[in-house]
């Protein structure tokens, strides 16, 4: 799961909800890179399709538990992919939400979390870009609170945040790839 230089090949895109992570992930996929879509959006889509309650606005703890389980399963999937693998959110995001709900501290996480690259590409709050939708029913204030929690959680676990520039999608993708392969 590591590159030749010893850095893990799993790269996380995290940060503010509605900050353009999924669009960036799609651009990276278009450029031929392996990607793993956000667990939260996949869970919400499944729950809405099946009439389930593991939704962040209905049963947030059930949602957080499913997100952590899905993030773990994503590692097994990603291990079969070649080259760098870009994750739209990951285990730390799900664990930070769980810890927020249970009022417990974020602690070193077991196993797969150390397989992520130390640098996490972090989408800043971008009100002009943010939109609520059927799968993102919260507002910008809640997105900002989530951003603040994640900005504390990742460094607490030894990660370095690399803020994504507020630019067009091609510029963002170039920024990430230049940072990784320069």
From TrEMBL:
Pfam families: AAA_28. Residues 11-172 form the NadR/Ttd14 AAA domain. This is Putative ATPase.
